[in-house]
């Protein structure tokens, strides 16, 4: 029986980062991965690299460039006529990027001495792991420590069963070789909006059916309101809230979707239907009943603040535990666990994890929203600065959106920052750093920012907290 200091189950962003960090710290590490990618190779990188974060961003970038060339070059004096897009080539480029990055993880494993094992892992009692390969062969390995990083999978819903042809999940939506004339999307969350944007840019008539009455309920309401206005009025997405899908029927290569809203039952016919209602932990068959690790009723592995399970020496990180299902959150948990295994006092600040929706404009946030602060009874003050007042954004012809800074009313400590606009994902990161150091809005306002840059909008929003923004007229404070 092989034995390792650490066995990691899953090679997604949480798992492969944990494995590499543990190896860097001098531990003998094995990492298990059960999936096979489109190239017939081990699917290192999990959902994120293979069928999630990376391929979706490749398509988002390709389609944004196409729309920009088609609709926005003329204002720059650039004549671009007769434009077309080769969708199979776009998909091939996406696959090439995925292959390069997943292959890179294999090389990183070799460089760091991590043993890669192809197969499914099951945690047994006594810190043993049962490994089943693709041929059904079973072996058992032993570890001083086990890190469970099995990830998540798309949620299925009975009214719209996935066939990966007409009705697809987020994975299938990355493989269309032609633009559907009418595209239905169930779910107006991160995945639904991103994938809807991809195909909407290429000419699909996109209808988004969202069961909830509120648009992006976890996003600051002011930002969500602006986002909905941009997506519907400027980009043509047909977003229908309070629309609960009750059934679907595939016939002659099309799908008829039945849904109910406040006006009663309705039907729509689509060429393709994307089911994007969220993800669930991939925990089936993962734990033996006597291994000592417990799960909740939704299949999440129970852990404490340091990702320790109820079984000593067994940890769980990433999508399979509580908290947001974000690659960067899982990666940092992986680092924390690896360092704690060797006795370091590593910890994670869950209050400063940035969240991003990679539409255009991007939506990014860190910290608390106005609604959360009101619910908690915390006094706060707000500064808002629009990209329309940014010289750099105007030069780029990319002025939609705003930066919203929220600070404590008495201490001025930054409590949250919410952005919709160009490069929002990168802009919010500087606020993440500021919050990690307990900065005030005044600290950002006193910092010298390069001019002209998009980053100046963050400084101006911080100044606006006290009504001191330079490049917009200050609102008069109520007496």
TrEMBL record:
Its cofactor is FAD. Residues 353-462 form the Pyridine nucleotide-disulphide oxidoreductase dimerisation domain. Its EC number is 1.8.1.4. Keywords: Cytoplasm, Disulfide bond, FAD, Flavoprotein, NAD, Nucleotide-binding, Oxidoreductase, Redox-active center. The active site is a redox-active disulfide bond. Binds 1 FAD per subunit. This is Dihydrolipoyl dehydrogenase. NAD(+) binds at residues 187-194, 210, 278. The active site is at residue 451. GO terms for molecular function: dihydrolipoyl dehydrogenase (NADH) activity; flavin adenine dinucleotide binding. FAD binds at residues 57, 121, 319, 325-328. Residues 4-334 form the FAD/NAD(P)-binding domain. It comes from the Bacteria. One of its GO terms (cellular component) is cytoplasm. It is found in: Cytoplasm. The keyword Disulfide bond applies. Belongs to the class-I pyridine nucleotide-disulfide oxidoreductase family. GO terms for biological process: 2-oxoglutarate metabolic process. The keyword Nucleotide-binding applies. Disulfide bonds join 48-53. It catalyses: N(6)-[(R)-dihydrolipoyl]-L-lysyl-[protein] + NAD(+) = N(6)-[(R)-lipoyl]-L-lysyl-[protein] + NADH + H(+).
